[in-house]
Amino acid sequence: MNGYLLLAGGAEFGGDMAVADRRAITLAGGPDAPIAIIPTAAAPDNNHARAGENGRRWFAGLGVRAVSVVPLLDATSANATDVVDAVRRARLIYLLGGFPHYLERTLAGSQAWQAMVMVYRAGGVIAGSSAGAMVLCEHYYDPGRGQVETGLGLVPAACVLPHHNTFGRRWAADLARQLPGVTLMGIDERVGMINDGPAGSWQVYGPGAVTRYHHGQPVSFRGGQTFQLAGT
């Protein structure tokens, strides 16, 4: 049975994200469930060590007893035995924000990504914030290249617009034209959405909103509300 996905809008590891992250911990099996922090997206600007340590401290502060930062930084390490083994042992895998195209290209087709999918298919949780959330969908927008790219595909017919309450909403009109029939999900910073609602629906966690654009029409959902991606 498939597990769960947590898609977050950015500014992860802050007080308001505790609601979503505590729910993800519960879904993964509780505070004894091992968590793997994946800092790949922060590697291009050499921010991976700081970002990874922020994640480790955050989850430890939430009571998690086994949280580690996995040194998955490039295509070589994405196929390294120790990295793949660390991913396989996790019950919650958290992809940090940063550079989405670098993250997707590093993971695509790698043994580490195959291990992540195995964890998810076995009932584990895969979480992503900002770039991490973007690449989990079938499509993502790479602002550095100014174009739509093919993502890793765990969320079909979807595209995440992170940081929606700051700058992400500016992408909506153009992406709606480029991706007709695809559901756009604008996720505010410090807000997460998890597919743990009834009949596979998504529930919003946090103080802001998730705005769903279906056929170009925006509808916003606040914390505690559930919705289906396909506009129902």
Explain this structure:
This protein has 7 helices and 14 strands. It is α/β, with parallel strands linked by helices and 232 residues long. It has a single domain (4-227), classed as Class I glutamine amidotransferase (GATase) domain (Rossmann fold, 3-Layer(aba) Sandwich), CATH 3.40.50.880. An 8-stranded mixed beta sheet has the order 3-2-4-5-1-10-11-14, sandwiched between helices. The chain has a 6-stranded mixed beta sheet with strand order 7-6-8-9-12-13. Helix 3 (81-89) packs parallel to helix 5 (111-121). It is globular and about 45 Å long.
Structural category is: alpha/beta
CATH superfamily grouping: Class I glutamine amidotransferase (GATase) domain
Q: Give the termini distance in whole angstroms.
A: 24 Å
Give the beta-strand count: 14
CATH topology: Rossmann fold
Globally, the shape reads globular
CATH architecture: 3-Layer(aba) Sandwich
- Low-confidence blocks of residues: none
Number of helices: 7
Using only CA atoms, what is the Rg?
A: 16 Å
Sheet with the most strands, sense and barrel status: 8 strands, mixed
Strand order of the largest sheet: 3-2-4-5-1-10-11-14
Any idea how many domains? 1
String of helices and strands? EHEHEHEHHEHEEEHEEEEEE
Estimate the strand proportion.
Answer: 25-35%
Helix content: 25-40%
Q: On the 0-100 scale, what is the average pLDDT? A: 97
